[in-house]
Amino acid sequence: MSRNTLNTLKDFKLSAGKKGQFYSLPALEKSLGVNISRLPVSIRIVLESVLRNCDGKKVTEEHVRQLASWAPNGDRTDEIPFVVARVVLQDFTGVPLLADLAAMRNVAHKMGINPKNIEPLVPVDLVVDHSVTIDHYREKGALDLNMKLEFSRNNERYQFMKWGMQAFDTFGVVPPGFGIVHQVNLEYLARGVHKQGSTYFPDTLVGTDSHTTMINGIGVVGWGVGGIEAEAGMLGQPVYFLTPDVIGVHLQGQLREGCTATDLVLTITELLRKEKVVGKFVEFFGEGTESLSLTDRATIANMAPEYGATMGFFPVDDATVEYFQGTGRTDDEITAFQNYYKAQGMYGIPKAGDIDYTRIVTLDLGTVTPSLAGPKRPQDRIELGNVKSNFAELFSKPTTENGFNKAAADLTHTYTTSNGVNVKNGDVLIAAITSCTNTSNPSVMLAAGLLAKKAVEAGLTVAPHIKTSLAPGSRVVTEYLTAAGLLPYMEQLGFGVTAYGCTTCIGNAGDLTPELNAAIADHDIVASAVLSGNRNFEARIHPNIRSNFLASPPLVVAYAIAGNMSKDLMTEPVGKGTGGRDVYLGDIWPSSKEVAAMMKFAMNAAVFKSNYADVKNAPGALWEKVSTVEGQVYNWPTSTYIAEPPFFDNFKMVPEAAATGITGARALGVFGDSITTDHISPAGSIQENGPAGKWLKAKGVLKADFNSYGSRRGNHEIMMRGTFANVRIKNRMIPAKADGSAVEGGITIHQPSGEQMSIYDAAMKYVDDGVPTMVFGGEEYGTGSSRDWAAKGTQLLGVKAVITRSFERIHRSNLVGMGVLPLQFIGDDSVETLGITGTEVFDLKGLEGEIKPQQLATLVIHRANGDIEEVTVLLRIDTPIEVDYYKHGGILPFVLRQLLAA
After folding, report:
1. What is the helix (H) or strand (E) element at residue 678, kind and residue range?
2. Is 517 exposed, middle or buried (0-12, 13-18, 19+ CB in 10 A)?
3. 55-93: b or e for each residue (b if 16 or more CB lie within 10 Å)?
4. Which run of H or E residues covers position 251?
5. Are 126 and 94 in contact (CB under 8 A)?
6. In 547-580, which positions are buried (b, 16+ CB within 10 angstroms) versus exposed (e)?
7. What is the pTM of this model?
8. What are phi and psi of 510, to 5 degrees?
9. 543, 572 contact by CB (below 8 A)
10. Is residue 1 over pLDDT 60?
11. Neighbour tally for 869: CB within 10 Å
12. For position 102, what pLDDT does the model report?
């Protein structure tokens, strides 16, 4: 029976003669006497959830009143209990989450409690998209060959997923080969509004991938969280967060001819990074926003993690409804969706002056220019005409200035591989049309196809040693590129369909040839990758490729033809065409009219319906052949992919007292700015001579069968050995090389022995000796993917505290969720100003008694010369519920105790 909180349960018109019920925000406005209609639309959608789920226990009327009274520049001390409608997972993060749920059931079973008490209370969809690798490319049948390899490598993981499907009532899987989670979510999983009984409510969600925000493009409130938060959310725990600031982004004007949605999102990423929107909601409004297609909006929303925001939100309007119609949603769904939002007063893009935002940022779309981003971070935008000079400048800059520390004279030097391929610095060795960010957008995909057509007709080619690939985020892309007659031209340039999944963007580019790898290593070549992705962090794309650029799909094709980042595509020929004729980018770049003429092939509702009907009706022979075990409790067969996680070892219903301080700690690592979750917990290849590689070899696994860290996240033995094992991470405890450049790799110096060893080996020595450890960092620590293993691995290495200049939102939350203290330097204090080298001993004081959110603590530094210095630091346990999580040893034991006590 629905509660009528504050007399807000009302009827709204569904269709002729039909009504539905909803929790009316206009009625709440009247009941409370506050001007809810001027709140940001994103805040109103969260408010509806708080109102609808008000039970007087986890969610109270006071929570409703607090959020309804949101002030643009109020104090951000109130905690919002947000109950989501559903949860989405990708397989890299979904498998360890499933392993945690299975381990919880083991605990219940051992305690004589019904294992079915551990059951998701909201729908959970796992999309398998992170496991396929580009092993085969530029050959007939590459798609089929890559999928067969994927299934052979990941059979144990897929068996485990199938167990989960039969064990948990609300757990579903979209099998491999359908696409990328965010694109599948946009095109298929999202239904607009949900219905429970006769009550309708908005689609809301959290997902275990930072780019979950792509769904904000269709007016759905949702964002990425770590797997540990997602588990809590699916088991009935609200997602708690501090009331956010909401930054309004006023888009004006229109994009210029020749500019793409990719150029726009890279511009927005650069702009909003400078505006410091980390941890805030971003909401787009104005006539420029209204002019954008739904898929352009989704591209912008997708990269919210890159500009640092919790969300990049676009309200529902006619463009949203048209997208739902074009992607095959039913008439009844669309009518309910449209009428619901109209009844709530939330339909349409707000105009300037309609909404009270914390502050407003304005962007004239007419100022956007063709751009790339790189070579190491997505927020480092470069105008197309400056790419050549920028690369030349960074080539010889020191690593401390984000450069490559190479002699300028080496830039033009030609090296020859053992099989006769000439390679230069800046050469493009990987060119990938990849990632949901862009492959969800027909305008840029059709533009790539049109550019390829013109290039082929002009006689242009792509050098055979360049690893080219097309990995759409949905099978629908292949359908419309084929229907438009463009796919054959892309195939001629090497961009045939190689996979449906994240591939290069997640680090599954596959290897280069042994000859290219040897030449890069022997001559320290700064090779390049160009991809239509959202992440280009160090060593993510390929461990031997140090220069990685994000670009629109048509620019990916253009740079594959050009072959080197030192070519200015604005003034120099892209290449030589038929008869040796110089062909310029302008000769092959498609016009907006040409792209628009092809759009009719992209939004075919029948194609979408047919494609996604196969998820249940025809998932594919490879998936159907995967066998599994049955039962409510998993039996954990021996596997190097799946192992029972140790997070519930020695579990008791009453938690042990949480630590009130740290004494005699050592530094496990001292790092600089922009340490990403890729640095902390790599997703890509496993190094043969690293701790994880050695463990696998000891288990009889051949190097060819190592697969990736991402695929082995269901096994903590590998993941803890991979923590801080990125080949490009720079631990400042290690002395610099003779030329002043930093030593790279997951190594540290054990104290007090002074012995250099892997971070994993040092951590285990400290654990054996009973010595607590700390990790130190700079600004933006934990940037990147919502990778809970970056926190889980940190905890399993025995780290008790991470102290930095600033944290990225999700990683800070994940550390708390694993019982690791996040602390932040205050004012100008930093590793540099305090002279922390890693030779010191550290204490942490001031947490005695009852811990309070964001309280101050004292870091005591005992230096090797006997000096002692005390420094005030800020505890980044931000909310009261996080205090509870920490007291329980983390969010998972907290939730498990609640479930078992029910």
Report:
1. helix 677-680
2. middle
3. eeeebeeebbebbbebeeeeeeeebbbbbbbbbbbbbbb
4. strand 246-252
5. yes
6. bbbbbbbbbbbbbbbbbbbbbbbeeebbbebeee
7. 0.90
8. 80, 175
9. no
10. no
11. 13
12. 96
Structure tokens that stand for 315 in this block? 């309200």
> What six digits make up the tokens of 660?
């009130």
Residues ≥6 apart with Cβ < 8 Å to 84: 49, 122, 204, 205, 206, 222, 233, 239
Which DSSP helix (H) or strand (E) runs through 80? strand 79-82
Q: Tokens in use for 345?
A: 């007063």
Place of tokens 């052979």: 152
| Cβ 701 vs Cβ 722: under 8 Å | no
Token pair listed for 335: 């009518």
Q: Are 552 and 381 in contact (CB under 8 A)?
A: no
For residue 32, the number of C-alpha atoms closer than 13 Å in the C-beta half-sphere is: 24
CB 403 within 8 A of CB 392: no
The token duo for 448 is 């790539």
Category of 249 on φ-ψ map: left (φ > 0), alpha (ψ -120 to 50) or beta: beta
- Widest distance between CA atoms in the chain: 83
Residue 848 pLDDT level (bands cut at 50, 70, 90): confident
Q: What is the sign of the dihedral through the CA atoms of 893, 895, 897 and 899? A: negative
Cα three-residue angle 39-41-42, rounded to 5 degrees: 110
Spatial contact of 729 and 744, defined as CB atoms under 8 Å apart: yes
Contact between 296 and 447 (Cβ < 8 Å): no
CA–CA–CA angle 294, 299, 304 (5° rounding): 120
The token pair at 311 is 């969300």
Q: Which of helix, strand or coil describes residue 20?
A: strand
Q: Which residues lie closer than 8 Å to 439 by C-beta, 6 or more apart? A: 180, 183, 433, 445, 471, 472, 473, 474, 477, 532, 553
Contact 470, 437 (CB under 8 A): no
Question: What integer pLDDT is reported at residue 741 of this predicted model?
Answer: 85
**Per-residue confidence (pLDDT) for residue 498, from 0 to 100:** 98
Residue 333 CB-density burial (10 A; 0-12 exposed, 13-18 middle, 19+ buried): middle
What was the pLDDT predicted at 786?
Answer: 63
Structure tokens at 95: 């498998």
